[in-house]
Amino acid sequence: FRKHGVKVFANTILAIPDTTLEDDLKSMEFTLDCQPFYSGFSIFTPFPGTPLGDYARQKGYVKDLDAGEDALPVSMQAGSVLNTVTDQEREIHRNILVLAPVANRLPVLRKLITRHLIYWKQNFVFDAIGFLVRNYCNMKIWPFKKSFLSFLKIFVRVLNIDKSNYHPLSKKISS
After folding, report:
1. What angle separates helix 124-141 from helix 87-105, to the nearest 10 degrees?
2. pLDDT at 170
3. How far is 31 from 12, CA to CA, in rounded Å?
4. Which residues, 6+ apart, have CB-to-CB distance to 120 below 8 Å?
5. H/E element, 42
6. Which residues contact residue 146 at a Cβ distance below 8 angstroms, ignoring those fewer than 6 apart?
7. Average pLDDT of the chain, as a whole number
8. pLDDT score for 142
């Protein structure tokens, strides 16, 4: 695909029921080994009425799954709602979401990111770098022209959404 200029987008879902963090790390490595133009990562969301959503409810992995929208995260970037996922694993998943695409675009940083940085406490710098890489790749795949000011406004808005969506969820899940 690279030889012919085809930009491949890969999406890897983390925290699927009955998988482990080790499975997620293997999935990340596999995605990076494939070297897509952009590697996106998301967190499994147990939507009601889907086979995996029903499975998660039957196994007791998610409480209040039938409660409707309030039981689900507002974003597949927000962190797992499964009670089988630890807070530490949620932090690692979040760092994979924002840093693995950086490792994909800048392979020289892959070992540093996949062996060290994804285990650090999530922070604004990781979120900002991940946002820039994600949007750079998105603009190259779907080339909609944006002014720098428009890009900056979107950047601030998305960071605020990510911050408000992710952090309250992790507190809500652990309580």
Report:
1. 50
2. 42
3. 7
4. 95, 126
5. strand 38-43
6. 139, 154
7. 82
8. 63
